[in-house]
Amino acid sequence: MKTKVLTLAVAAALLPTTSAWAAPTISDLEARINDLESRLTTNEQQTQQAESSASAFEFHGYARSGLLMNEHRTGATDTGPYMTAAGDLGAPVGRLGLEDTNYLEANLIHNRKLDNGSSAFFKIMLADGVETSNDWTADDSDLNVRQVYAQFSNLPSFTGAFENSTVWAGKRFDRDNFDIHFLDSDIVFLAGTGAGIYDVQMSDDWKANFSIYGRDFGSVESAGTDVENYVATMNNHIGQWQVMFSAMDSKDNEDVTDDSTATHRAKHGLHALLAYHANSFYGLQDGWSKSGVLIGSGLGAQLKAIGSDGNLNDDAKAVRAFTFGVKDINKTWSVAPALMAEYSQDRIKDNDEFKWGTFNVRVSQTFTENFEMVYEGSYQYMDLDNSVSSAKGSYYKATISPTLKLDTAAGFFERPELRFAVSYVDWSSDLDNYSVSTATGASTMGNGGETLFALQMETWF
Amino acid sequence: MKTKVLTLAVAAALLPTTSAWAAPTISDLEARINDLESRLTTNEQQTQQAESSASAFEFHGYARSGLLMNEHRTGATDTGPYMTAAGDLGAPVGRLGLEDTNYLEANLIHNRKLDNGSSAFFKIMLADGVETSNDWTADDSDLNVRQVYAQFSNLPSFTGAFENSTVWAGKRFDRDNFDIHFLDSDIVFLAGTGAGIYDVQMSDDWKANFSIYGRDFGSVESAGTDVENYVATMNNHIGQWQVMFSAMDSKDNEDVTDDSTATHRAKHGLHALLAYHANSFYGLQDGWSKSGVLIGSGLGAQLKAIGSDGNLNDDAKAVRAFTFGVKDINKTWSVAPALMAEYSQDRIKDNDEFKWGTFNVRVSQTFTENFEMVYEGSYQYMDLDNSVSSAKGSYYKATISPTLKLDTAAGFFERPELRFAVSYVDWSSDLDNYSVSTATGASTMGNGGETLFALQMETWF
Amino acid sequence: MKTKVLTLAVAAALLPTTSAWAAPTISDLEARINDLESRLTTNEQQTQQAESSASAFEFHGYARSGLLMNEHRTGATDTGPYMTAAGDLGAPVGRLGLEDTNYLEANLIHNRKLDNGSSAFFKIMLADGVETSNDWTADDSDLNVRQVYAQFSNLPSFTGAFENSTVWAGKRFDRDNFDIHFLDSDIVFLAGTGAGIYDVQMSDDWKANFSIYGRDFGSVESAGTDVENYVATMNNHIGQWQVMFSAMDSKDNEDVTDDSTATHRAKHGLHALLAYHANSFYGLQDGWSKSGVLIGSGLGAQLKAIGSDGNLNDDAKAVRAFTFGVKDINKTWSVAPALMAEYSQDRIKDNDEFKWGTFNVRVSQTFTENFEMVYEGSYQYMDLDNSVSSAKGSYYKATISPTLKLDTAAGFFERPELRFAVSYVDWSSDLDNYSVSTATGASTMGNGGETLFALQMETWF
């Protein structure tokens, strides 16, 4: 009886001013809390589902597409970062404003994760590259599958040195390939079909990768040739140093013949890379830089795309040095210089000798959150002797490119970029009709002194 | 002491009848609320993540696939909306029941959004079209990349007239292309590689788009030809009116020669479209309609696919009129008439003269939530003179198609549709062996009077 | 007045010890609950959106990729499950360790669901298969679209026997195809372009599928031939029994000629399958098995890929028997035996006669959560007479394969697998130079006695 009265009194006292009618009791609130808890539990589960089904699939890609026109209002399809006579040797020049191709890479990824933390990763990469500006490109299409592989991480059975290692098999680009974007050139491009393991902990600050990649010289179906090259690689990361060794073996390669074939096609190859990955721009803050040397012999003389070139002389020798970096000078200006040079001899024919060096610098000047001016200067020196004929000279390019970005403050590698570019390219006339290849009718540089106008999109994500 | 007693009293009073044992105190409830709040906060963040990772990718597409058989139980591969002699001129007939191809467009889209509201949109379109019914089509495949472009919207640096404009670059179908679906014909199909800007606000109800598209005549790789055509377009939307101007320039086109080449291939072209987009079916409610006129000269005489045809005479002239609409008469019946007609002269050869007109009507009759009967009647008149020979006559088609849909109430453009169709097609015998092309062995219409049976899926999403 | 005092007293009594300052009143809590409820409601809607946009798209696939090398350190491209002389007849051997191809299927799926439970499903399958180990395969690419179809489920208009049926149209692999994975051989592979309906309820435990599939003999574009074959199928599931009937009609097939063509190419075909799908391993628990017989005549004599082969004699006859199963013996060992045998006569040429039988067994031995050893033994007997020449003999294969998996406990069909495999293959020398085809220069088995080393990834999801 008494408590009843008390309750009402308390209830009245607790009556919220907002309430239109009666005061809620604690049990009212409790009921609502119970309801909230069960709703939230359901919702948490649904969120989990949505999250996991969303994260099971990933879409990533790279693409560039645009128009390239010269001052004669015609297409300029013989341009690009490998347009010089030394391009056949893998000598790049600055890419900005030279690219006429519509190129894309589309990665479709499937992730699977177990509760114990172990995970499986599967990737397909579709890629295509065409020059035509048309929308229907069935006759020109190069659409193909560049990667298809699976890898495991954090397997409970992997312990000790293998505890944090990742194991894979299939067709892929090696995880640790890296490039000088501005030259459209990888430092090493190790790729093919095989298997391997990453991040074997050899000691506290020494991690090693081991892999075997297969390559084919020529095309299996179309050319009918099927010479396999097997590349065994050990790739070491010791602190900021990278030391990479590759050995390759292609038993039948010496039997292949074509009209520009090497004097004596190599059956074996050796390749080494020494690189330093610096967290600073040659000691300066707000930047980074990478420098190194590559050396190879026989099939290893193709220093970038390891083991991909069968048309190398058995005593081919090549050495390449590179250094590049990126530095934010202030809120407005950033600079990215790059240097790459190579010497090779007895590369294809006995007594051939090739020297080239490229210096490139890209500079960006920010005007607004979305607009920047990008400038690129590129120079390449060539001294080329294919054992039959020789040529020597220089290539020059200057480009200015008004560029739109979502956020210019995000720096050089923020994409997408929508750009207009005007370039002037010229070179020594001595190079005009020269070709590294001794094949009859091999394509040459042609005449220099051309102005190029480009409209281009570039993105990656 | 006293309060203690009181509390217990109150607690007892507040004891919910459901509770098995003791009454919860306010602090109990507060603790549970605190817990709920922190759980909900976490859950809200996870939901955000799931939402953004889900919305970063979009999959859209169009596809049709099916069987087409004639009354002789053999494939009918020479049929389709462009099956008539005038089809080479871009004259379509009603598509329902005529399509033998398995065609698809798959769009993979990546979205990126900044907190300031600006966004980047990236699209790849894969497309393929084959006639074979087989599941492995590597030998017939036309799989190719029709679009690859990026665009920015709501850039903070874009102000004033550009505040709501969208800027893009790459390879694409123009955003404002529109079509008569029932004829499988765009009114304008502006596409290619280039750059442009949409929705520049010229005045209160006047928006303009500006773009430059490049095209190639012929195939770069396969045909070895590489004649570029550059199309500059200004496309205006003034209220419900659309006024579009295009000028094109193809410097080297006059030098191209093939056995059916134009008398004097055009180097330049002009093209204009005037269209009215009505929110009513010619004044009636529950519908819409679009009407307009296109006119072009030289390279602009290809009125639909602007700048895509290099084999046009330098003084080619063409004019095209169109009108079409969709009207829901009642819950059961809907009707969609379409009219398109064109006159062109000196189009390919001097003194050639081509007249054609198509009238098509599609009618749907709803029976249940999932089933409707679709009827299509199509008529085309042709008066064709390629300067060497001429032909005149008519084409007729009648189709009846039982159709399954997820929701017939959603109207003509609800997809997917699973349909069976029976069509009867016939035409004037005068047209049987006539070809617009003067090339030797050019394909002709053949004989009419055929019954066609189709099983087909069509979808877009 | 009095209540005021009481309230304070109660408030004090309810003061939570954690609370820093004042006791919350019921109205405080109520306010927080109101807030929680509105936040949760918003969050629930967002979760719905995220869930539906995530579930609208699905990515599924199959892929295998790897290296295959023989003891001479050269590629072994003539190997595979159909490497024997009888392979041309569809006679497989165990696949483990023999596959050199990089093959993938990527399925892009769009789901749509209405509130009434009806749903639309749309699928595209991209597929590719190449032998080259290279990463850029444009010259070898077989990338093509194997499936593109749409289907409806749970349509409200479908009632009675059709209530739970699914209707489809387009190009597809039939839903009810099933295979012996270890032999890389379907039991039936019904595929092509057409339409059909699944799960028509004929009686309580009898469901039937009806479909029409079109096929093309040869390639439309490349070969220019376009002979269509129409296959009508009724496929019944009665309890665990499957009874499937197919009839086919290809009017123009008799007119096709090529250098290895059948004596008299069939115009018609009949095909039947009787199968039993057991939930036990031949009566034993922890397993399952499938057994059956296929029989066909004329165009139906291609017993697996129904209606896909036009080069069959008009009185061709074939019968095939199969049985296979999977049994988990204990936590460590699992076994999967498979048997397939076929007799056919007058198959291609009058009086030809072909007998073959394959026995295969795969055994897995689990060592850890991620590692197992897989063993496969395969034997095939052949007695082949193509009416011109004959050969008789046996094929043997033994394979041992250390295999990595995410979860070995999940059994035989858990993927991805990363495997190394060593195989020894040999066969009777009588078979070395024999070919089922009478075409000049038809490929043969070559010599046996080869050791093969494989590195391979295989996955599906």
Automatic annotation (TrEMBL), chains A, B, C:
Coiled-coil spans in chain: 26-53
Membrane association type: Multi-pass membrane protein
Pfam families found in the cross-reference section: LamB (PF02264)
UniProt keyword terms in alphabetical order: Cell outer membrane, Coiled coil, Ion transport, Membrane, Porin, Signal, Transmembrane, Transmembrane beta strand, Transport
Keyword field contains rRNA-binding: no
Signal peptide positions (record): 1-22
Gene Ontology process terms (BP): monoatomic ion transport; polysaccharide transport
One annotated GO molecular function: carbohydrate transmembrane transporter activity
Source species: Vibrio eleionomae
Record-given protein name: Porin
Family: Belongs to the porin LamB (TC 1.B.3) family.
Domain of life: Bacteria
Organism lineage: Bacteria, Pseudomonadati, Pseudomonadota, Gammaproteobacteria, Vibrionales
Subcellular location as annotated: Cell outer membrane
Predominant localisation class: membrane
UniProt xrefs under InterPro entries: G_neg_Bact_CarbUptk_Porin (IPR050286), Porin_LamB (IPR003192), Porin_LamB_sf (IPR036998)
